[in-house]
Amino acid sequence: MKIDFASALAQGNLLDRRRLMGGMAGLGAASMLGGLGGLSGVAHASENQTRPNFPWTDPAENLRILSRMWGTIDPGKEAILYVFGPMFGTTDPGSFKPLFRMESIATVRTYPQEGGAYRYLAGQIILFTDFKTGEVLETWRNPYTDEVNEVFQYRDYPLDYVLDPNKFPERYTMENDEDMKRKLVLDWFFRGDTAYGDAIARTKLKNRLDPKEWPRESVGEFWETFEVYRWQAKIAEIEDLSLPSIPSFTGDFQTFKPWEPWMLMGQRPGKIFSVRTAFKIDDFSIVPKKVMAYAEKHMPEMLQAPTKFDKSYKLNDQHFKEQRRPMPLRP
Fold it and tell me: Which of 32, 83, 277, 329 is packed most tightly, with the most Cβ within 10 A?
C-alpha cells in the first residue's frame, strides 16, 4: 500500500504518491499520518534574490500551484505525469542493494471547487523493471531470501477525491491533534528564475494487509514511510495565472518505504529507498517502448484518467487482495 502524494500534500505534513498520482500519486497515491512534516511556510531567498509576486504563504494558492504543476486546472482536461527512478533495499545504514527500477504513468483530470478546493479524477500505475535491462519484471529473485517472487505491478485506479488546502481529509488520523490544524504551505526556496517548493513527510497508516492473514506479504500492523518532495518550476510561469498548466514543472522525490507485499518479506527489518524524477508529458512517446507495450497489454484501461464522478477510490492494496492469495509459510 502506498499513500497518494497529491493527497498528502493537501494534508499538510502528509505526502503520498498514491493519490496523485503520488503519486498521484504515487500519483500516491498515491494515499498518507502521523508524524512530523516539513511544511513550514518559510521562503528562503538567496542574497540579492527578489522574492516572487505569487502569494506563497496562502494555502489555497499553494494547492493551485501544485495542481498546475502535476496537471492542469483547465476543468476536465487530462494531464499525464511520468515518474521514473531506481529502488534500493536497505536493512541498516550501511547496507544498500539495488532491487529494481520503477516506471510510473499517472493521469489526472482536475475540477476547481468552492473555497480553493479541487476535485480530481485520477489513476496511477507503477511498473517494476529489471535494474540493468529495463525489462518489465514478471518474476524477480529476492536477494534477501533467494526466492523467486511473482511480481505484482502497482496500480491505484480509479481515484475520485477532493483536496482542501485548509484541512485534512477525515479518513486520516494523526498522532498529534495539533497536526490536524496545519494547512498546505510548502517550504519555498527561490534561486535565480526558479521556485523550489519542498515538503517532508513522515507517514503512518494502518496496514490493510493484516499480518495474521498475510504473514508473508504484510510488513506488519502499520505502513510507515519517510518522504522528501521537491516541486520546482519557473517563477514567471507560476505567476502567470493565464497558464492553467505550468510547462517547466519537474519534481524530485526520495522515499524510505516498506517492502512491497509481493516481495514476501513479512516483518523482516528494512526499507526500500527510492529516488524519483517527475515531469508532465503530452503523450506516451517518451516512455520506454517495452514499458508501454506491457501497460497497453495488461492494464490499458488505466492509461486514461477516469471520467465519472462516482467517489471511487481503489488503491493498490485492494487490487492486490482481490488478485492474490496469502502465500504459505516457508518450511
Answer: 32
What would the grid cell of residue 195 be? 521556485
> What is the distance in angstroms between the CA of the first residue and the CA of the last residue of the chain?
27
CB atoms within 10 A of CB 266: 19
In which element (H, E) is residue 91 found? strand 78-92
Cell of residue 34, nine digits: 502521523
**Three-state SS across 170-188?**
CCCCCCCHHHHHCCCCCEE
Q: What is the largest CA-CA distance in the chain?
A: 66
Strands 118-129 and 95-112, sheet pairing: antiparallel
Instruction: Check pLDDT > 80 for residue 307.
Output: yes
- Residue 21 pLDDT > 60: no
What are the C-alpha distances in Å from 147 to residues 53, 238, 262, 321, 328? 56, 49, 11, 21, 13
Residues 169 and 161: their CA atoms lie apart, in Å, by 10
Q: Is residue 102 part of a domain?
A: yes
How many angstroms separate the CA atoms of 77 and 101, rounded?
A: 30
Is the confidence at residue 9, as pLDDT, over 70? no
Residue type, 159: L
* Residue 328 in domain: no
Domain membership of residue 142 (yes or no) is yes
Give the structural domain span for 148.
Answer: 5-323
- Look at residue 6 in the predicted model and tell me its pLDDT: 36
The answer to whether position 330 is within a domain reads: no
Q: What is the pLDDT of residues 144-177, one digit of tens each?
A: 999 999 999 999 999 999 998 887 554 444 444 4
Spatial CB neighbours of 228, under 8 Å, sequence gap ≥ 6 = 38, 198, 199, 200, 201, 253, 254, 255
Number of structural domains in the chain: 1
* CA gap 293, 296 in Å, rounded: 5
Cis bond before residue 158 (omega within 30° of 0): yes
Mean pLDDT, rounded, for 299-311 = 97
Per-residue pLDDT of 171-226, as tens digits, reads: 444 444 454 445 678 889 999 999 999 988 777 778 889 999 999 999 999 888 88
